[in-house]
Design brief:
Number of helices: 17
Strand content: 5-15%
Radius of gyration: 25 Å
Structural class: mainly alpha
Low-confidence stretches: none
Mean pLDDT: 89
């Protein structure tokens, strides 16, 4: 009897966990389907995590990418990411799509329980799923002020809180929406000017400040980004994502030691973030601290086995440490993950140049340049390998 009771309890737990994962999937698809309709770029759905793709099953259907993670402790975790829409009403539909999907699923389950003549066991299983969908609806539609910490260190709010935020945005002046339009058209200076007008109209808040910062970063105007942060972010509570951005800004103005301080603080809050580990490794590499860089790049690839840039940097630092063949293997693996990765071609050029394979080196240097690689010595490498041929 005791063993039977334990088995029944374990089965019940398994049904609850399964119901939560399935409910989360339907909820996120409720966001994804309108996002696919209203946008023209990739839509990514995560089930079992807030953006962690390590140990995930990846499924691709056209513009839709699914990362499904079996995570006993992440049975209620999920999110959907997509490019911004060009209309606030469309964004509202995407935000409400998740809770509405859960609500519709609950109506379907309730109808099945009431009208399909099911057995007691079947009714029990569907009742568990029904409770899960109702829970999902109310938890997500409630406009909680408590943020969720995402895998990359940033934060997000419940669907209800996002919807109220969008309702508030409808009161914003026209300059705000012009700024969004200019940003999407990559006219960043005009976007910044419009958002500054929005703040002057009395709508200064963290959201507007972050939009202006993102425009400076898209322009790669790191000095302006640094000045913007100095002027507006003093006293603000920073999350792991904010700290990582500050690190990127200092890298952009060649202040690598200062960047390391911010990356360290970011990783203290979220030590498993592969992007920040990769960024910190890059800063160490620029300072000639190759052993430290090696550790960071290795950890980045451990937490994200599909991170091509991290593999490329790991290969580069191995070459600097004279582990040439291991470095070459990592660079080739990086290109197998992302064939048009500029930095991988740059480092492959350096690898071949070291062994006197100047023809191969020149091909990779030219490929890196064509793909937009940013390296102060690239033109020198091209000229030098041409001279050696």
């Amino acid at each position: 009897m005791i063993i039977t009771g334990i088995l029944i309890a374990l089965l019940g737990i398994a049904i609850v966990l399964l119901s939560r994962s399935i409910t989360t999937f339907f909820h996120e698809m409720g966001h994804a389907i309108p996002a696919l309709y209203f946008t023209e770029e990739e839509v990514v759905v995560y089930v079992g995590s807030y953006g962690d793709i390590s140990n995930s099953l990846k499924l691709q259907y056209g513009r839709l990418t699914l990362y499904l993670t079996f995570n006993v402790f992440g049975w209620n975790l999920g999110m959907c990411t997509h490019k911004p829409t060009d209309d606030i009403q469309k964004t509202m539909i995407i935000v409400l799509g998740g809770p509405l999907a859960s609500l519709l699923l609950s109506f379907f389950l309730l109808n099945a329980i009431a009208n399909y003549g099911l057995s007691e066991d079947q009714i029990f299983i569907l009742a568990v799923f029904l409770a899960s969908t109702i829970w999902d609806f109310f938890v997500n539609i409630y406009p909680s002020s408590q943020p969720m910490n995402l895998h990359d260190g940033s934060v997000a709010y419940s669907d209800g809180a996002q919807f109220l935020g969008l309702l508030h945005q409808r009161k914003y002046p026209e300059s705000y929406f012009k700024g969004i339009k200019y940003f999407q058209e990559e006219q960043y200076d005009k976007a910044i000017a419009e958002w500054e007008n929005t703040m002057e109209a009395g709508f200064k808040n963290d959201g507007i400040l972050d939009l202006i910062l993102s425009a400076h970063l898209e322009k790669k105007d790191y000095q302006a980004a640094h000045a913007h942060v100095d002027e507006h972010y003093y006293g603000r509570k920073l999350n792991a994502g904010d700290l990582a951005i500050l690190g990127d800004i200092h890298v952009g103005i060649n202040e690598y030691r200062e960047a390391l301080q911010y990356y360290n603080e970011s990783l203290f809050l979220n030590f498993r973030d592969p992007k920040v580990l990769n960024a910190r490794g890059h800063a160490h590499m620029q300072l000639g601290e190759y052993e430290e860089a090696f550790q960071d790049f290795q950890r980045a690839t451990f937490y994200d086995s599909n991170y091509a840039e991290a593999y490329s940097n790991l290969g580069a630092v191995k070459i600097q440490l004279r582990h040439y063949e291991d470095g070459y293997t990592d660079l080739m693996h990086a290109l197998s993950l992302k064939k048009d990765l500029p930095v991988a071609h740059l480092y492959l050029g350096i690898y071949h140049e070291k062994f006197g394979n100047y023809k191969e080196a020149l091909e990779h240097f030219k490929k890196a340049k064509a793909l937009g690689a940013r390296h102060h010595g690239l033109e020198f490498y091209i000229a030098e390998t041409k001279r050696m041929l």
